[in-house]
Queue: 2 jobs
Job 1
Amino acid sequence: MSMRRVSIFGATGSIGQNTIDLIRRDAARYDVVALSGGHNVAQLARDARELRAEVAITAYEARLPELRAALAGSDVEAAAGTQALLEAASRPADWIMSAIVGAAGLAPGLRALEQGSTLALANKESLVCAGRLLMQTAKAHGARILPVDSEHSAVFQALVGERISEVERIIITASGGAFRDWPMERLQTATLAEASSHPNWDMGQRITIDSASMFNKALEVIETHEFFRVAPEQIEVLVHPQSLVHALVGFRDGALMSHLGAPDMRHAIGYALHWPDRRHLPVARLDLATVGQLEFRAPDSARYPALRLAQEVMARGGLSGAVFNAAKERALDHFIAGRIGFLDMATITEQVLASLEAQPDLIDAAMTLENVTRIDDLARQAADQAVLKKTG
Ligand code: NDP
Ligand code: MG
């Protein structure tokens, strides 16, 4: 069997490390081309040495000397910066994991698709910012995108052998995050530490906080719309505290097909890695008799304004997804820095959306990487201004 050439962007993160775990268990099958990271240069160098990667890239040029030093004496090339990331994404690979966090994952993902590589997409932000551009780029180059977000992998699996035209609705589940059972009055004073712990999933800090605010689910609703091309009104969110049912697909005959599994991202990563085959995965097997009960409830729209904003973004279309994502990312930066409260993230995002949506020349510009990048910058600046105004 021939070796598969694989690259992992965001290798030092939570998804990246889970991907490496699967590859390491079966190392003889893989030729690792590129591994990328950010600040965690030591981890990046360790993994690149162990997996004998061709090249290791840190996103930050200032960290290059450190990466070089950590790779000294090995055959791994060291590189740094945005251009180096793009160069690495251009290297021929059969399978590329897109697991950088945030809009920074868009350009390398596009570049990978332009090479015709299969892109395993954890980076949902790129679909929110530029869904059509991503899907069209894949199509134009005969490349494939496989979803890695657990809900979207679940939908994808429920659709095997089915026709999308026969789908009535797609239901994605949400744990409800850290503050599911908190009284509303307490939310504004929630601390960074409180928002950074997830009841069921072990993930990077940013997506964990986005789970508490449901911004993560808002992104996922848009991701569902962009990836599966279903109408906004066909997408439902269901709070499911156990996080065992990841999604359900409802067909025109009323049948619901669902995907259940332990909350372990190696499920979805492994499915994308081995697709269209299924191989053994080192994930816990569910014992439903022990689980006993599965609970479901409708999300509380007052508690989670992000879900309403997602509806507005899908209705507005154009580049509003890029505005929404960038404003949210920046508001999250400010929350992490302690400058704004938990609920202010939604208020600021809504303000930025309103101000940029009032500028049709920007929001209705063609969906090119250049225009998406420009509006992303403007949305971040607008978010900074809104925070300044608020904090004085
Ligand atoms: P982490 O924060 O754990 O990891 C992010 C990765 O991206 C790290 O390798 C980090 O490097 C790197 N990185 C951070 N900023 C930049 C930048 N500006 N440019 C280039 N690289 C950067 O995130 P997760 O692994 O949790 O999430 C990754 C993606 O997967 C996100 O889009 C998230 O929404 C999605 N996802 C994650 C899930 C999960 O279970 N974690 C589930 C579903 C989707 P370093 O750490 O070295 O600085
Ligand atoms: Mg998810």
Job 2
Amino acid sequence: MRTSVIGFPRIGRNRELKFASEKYFNGEITEKELLETAEAIKNENLLKQKEAGITFISSNDFSFYDNMLDTAVLFNVIPKRYKDLKLSGLDTYFAMARGYQGEKGNVKALAMKKWFNTNYHYLVPEIDDDTKIELIGDKPVKDFEAAGKIGVNTKTSIIGPFTFLKLTRFTGSKNVHDVADDLINAYVQLVKALEKKGEGLIEFDEPRLVMDLSAEDKELFKNIYNVILESKGSVKILLQTFFGDIRDIYDEVVKLDFDAIGLDFVEGRKTAELVKFFPKGKVLFAGLVNGKNIWINDYSKTLSALKDIATDEIVLSTSCSLLHVPYTLDGEAGLDSDCKAHFSFAREKLSELKDLGELFDTDFEKDERFIRNKLLHQGRKNCMDSAVQSAVASIKPEDYERLPKFEEREKIQKDKFRLPLFPTTTIGSFPQTADVRKNRLEFKKGLKSKEEYIKFNQDKIRECIKLQEEIGLDVIVHGEFERNDMVEYFGENLSGFLFTKNAWVQSYGTRCVKPAIIWGDVARKNPITVEWSKFAKSCTDKPVKGMLTGPVTILNWSFPREDISIKESTLQIALAIRDEVLDLEKNGIDIIQIDEAALREKLPLRKADWYSEYLDWAIPAFRLVHSKVKSETQIHTHMCYSEFTDIIPAIDAMDADVITFEASRSDLLILDALRENNFKTEVGPGVYDIHSPRVPSVDEIVTALTKMRKKIEDRKLWVNPDCGLKTRGEDETVKSLKNLVAAAKIIRG
Ligand code: GLN
Ligand code: ZN
């Protein structure tokens, strides 16, 4: 059986692209050197896939920053403000990705958004009235040729026109229909250019098809592809979809003249049912090797799924690009080899494809690879904890409800804390200066004793609290100096988690994350934050806010198990964090923030599934964490993206007492939605953007607060930055917070 890979990680085995790009941004290496790094990565990726025997290998999956951005630049969707900088091609590209501040001007970057249901982020192309869409670049053609030169015959993969248009922002008076013809024409030109070079198969990636589609969307899709397919000449076209099934448009898609159709059998719940009818004469690319998670494939399941498909023309494929998993397990010496046998990263997935392809064509039951795989699926060591399982099984409905009700608690808490109107606070972390990181690292490496490590952090906490008192903040935090990362820190203190050394996954541009792996049932091994918070409290008479990461975020930023549901795992984590909440309360911490920065991450792509598949258990899981605290204990939560305008009732149903969230970049639109929905929770919409070193002026903050007061009752409004301050410098942080407090005082006056 033939095999296909939709895309391969491009950051490099040891994040070479990240480091080279950062050096290039700092002027430490030349463009030529950066291009050389890129070429080495591309070549290695292609050759490894070829060596593994993959039939259909993608070119053009590489990107210096992001594939949506590549596609925009290819078709001249470059807003004037970037062209006006008159930079080189590569620097214009990076200006769009990261903004530009220098002698030639000062422009912000394009907006960035989450790529479907992943933790990858794409740059949002902008079409305005000046945009003239045409094929101006040749990256796909060059990449196809370059692959040919090293002996790899590739399929060119490119984001398809439908997805491209649907994800683009129209900032002028034009809409999709005004530009569709130009865009279609540009794609046709690209197909022709590739055909001329001998390209045989082009893969159009159209993940947008797995979301809800209107009648108008379907029309647009058909119009686009009728033209493209008519002019495809000798090139074959693969319509590749992923991240779900295409139930809304499957019937139409199979009637179009695609040569091949790629469907996701891992996340597409309806895919197996849809392909019961699959037209003769077309090839089915069956995405059965999970491109998003790191567990080894279940050969028995996959082979029987393949056997069930009622067409002979099948290519076995990854379910989506392998961009979303780490590069290789090779080098993860720290992982127990029994555990390691259960994992498969991008490189290992290539072998799985090859194995499965070969097994399918033989009498696999007796094949050693099949037998070994089967054994591995019979169980894993140390992943079951019966106490945890029975604790989850005995959760009762009332465990999800906090009493008394919000309104009553609000009164009790106002009486107790006696905070001024518009109370000021921060989101938790303070700048993680070099000495803070050094202290952690030296302790981890055994170069520092536990006592020295603790003493250093206590001094930091004391200093940080003194600073907050001087600045005049009302609710104090300890600063989070003991934490590397808001998920890893908790994971390390919970049983059931595993950590890797080098399993980086691209989140956006040069930024990568290293998700934890949830290996087994989760329980709290010991109190995690209590000593730090207690110490902080002993340093001040002001209220101190304890700081935890919530269960949904811990799950969403880890690789989840596949042997139990993510709901089950989340409830386990919720019970563990609940123990921590109750311990904090017992130790006198009466304000506790439970961060749910990534709450939206796994929100299903189809609206109809939002509640039934996700929010109906995710929101209760959050409530489970705090439902047992006393009425006078104030629960805060924090969310990073204010993109929750459409799920406001669910956010309110978290039943926190206060929520802080990012708002400064999103033109405060969310405030209208809060008002319309009668949002009960007290709110702190961030008054300035912490993602930039810029210090906001007092006036600016007063203006933001004045706007907020029009939509939010005074007694419910908190004053705080957008997010944690750990990536900021000390100097700008102090200045910004002083202005924040000054602004709150002016408004109080
Ligand atoms: N409490 C965390 C911090 O302040 C929250 C981080 C986040 O929301 N990403 O760093
Ligand atoms: Zn945040």
